[in-house]
Amino acid sequence: MIRDLLRRELADVEYALRIKHEEIAKLDARRARLIERLRLPIVYYSLTGNVRRFVEKTGRRAYQIPEIVAEPYILVTPTIGFGEIPEPVTEYLREYGGWLRAVAVSGNRNFGPLFGVAGEKIAREYGVPLILRFELAGNDEDVRKFNEEVSRIDEEVTR
């Protein structure tokens, strides 16, 4: 009789713990979604797919131009031609440049002093830091540096 009561009580406690674990898991998932929303999104333009591949490797929330992002963001763009900013990026910045917090730029080192010049131009015009120049689709070290810099800016923006 007492054993049966203890078994039922134990089953009740285990059931309550299971419910609590499910609630905690739901709260953890909600917390993760909220944290992700606090992180600055990436807005990018990719002509050849290199910038898109780089952005995908960062694991961050990202939007491809011409998607509209009306919140602070980080821009990732290629340099085209001889140090030029792609026209879709220029048009986007005319409309949404006020939200820009930093820029990263892709290029090709074969262009020597013109490598990543589009990023310099954007940084200068909008008064934001150029946080990274990377070649083509970048490498693991580029992704690490980029995420480090964006995290630092996230901290500044969310204070």
From TrEMBL:
It comes from the Bacteria. Pfam families: Flavodoxin_NdrI. InterPro entries: Flavoprotein-like_sf, RNR_NrdI. This is Protein NrdI. It comes from Paenibacillus cisolokensis. The lineage of its organism: Bacteria, Bacillati, Bacillota, Bacilli, Bacillales.
